[in-house]
């Protein structure tokens, strides 16, 4: 039984509210006077405010310059530009590795832990030995093995 009357009524009430807001300030001249007149108390308080600024301390400047002069190394592995699009890494800070390098060294350690020890990895990639040991201990790459369904025949080694 909706004949559209309630929608029209709501639309009219919204328009009426907007009209009231437009002419509402003219009905109260005391508000307009407060807006146009200066508040002397506020002005005197603002004049009492004193702001003192100075350059950052020399310690902050030396930290910023030290981070700008951080030692960089060339990446051990590179990937074609098409694979990574615009993420071409040209230099890596010493003490850090790229994701590709991390995956590679974790896989190398998993395949031959005797040759790829934590000490060798930390020397090759300029990493902290404790962090390298923690990386090898807690980030273990896993093998994905697909188990065929039982209804299919399996190929056996001959």
UniProtKB/TrEMBL annotation:
GO terms for cellular component: mitochondrion. It holds the Pfam family UPF0240. One of its GO terms (biological process) is mitochondrial respiratory chain complex I assembly. Coiled coil: none annotated. Belongs to the NDUFAF4 family. Binds calmodulin. Interacts with NDUFAF3. This is NADH dehydrogenase [ubiquinone] 1 alpha subcomplex assembly factor 4. The gene is LOC121393725.
């Amino acid at each position: 039984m909706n004949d559209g009357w309630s929608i029209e009524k709501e639309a009219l009430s919204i328009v009426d509210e907007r009209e009231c807001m437009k002419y509402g300030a003219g009905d109260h001249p005391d508000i307009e006077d407060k807006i146009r007149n200066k508040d002397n108390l506020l002005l005197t308080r603002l004049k009492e405010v004193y702001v003192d600024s100075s350059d950052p301390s020399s310690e902050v400047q030396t930290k910023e310059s030290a981070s700008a002069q951080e030692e960089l190394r060339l990446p051990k592995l590179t990937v074609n530009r098409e694979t990574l699009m615009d993420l071409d890494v040209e230099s890596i800070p010493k003490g850090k590795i790229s994701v590709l390098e991390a995956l590679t060294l974790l896989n190398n350690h998993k395949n031959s832990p005797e040759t790829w020890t934590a000490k060798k990895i930390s020397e090759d990639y300029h990493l902290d030995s404790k962090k390298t040991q923690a990386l090898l201990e807690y980030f273990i790459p896993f093998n994905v093995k697909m188990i065929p369904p039982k209804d299919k025949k399996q190929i056996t080694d001959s």
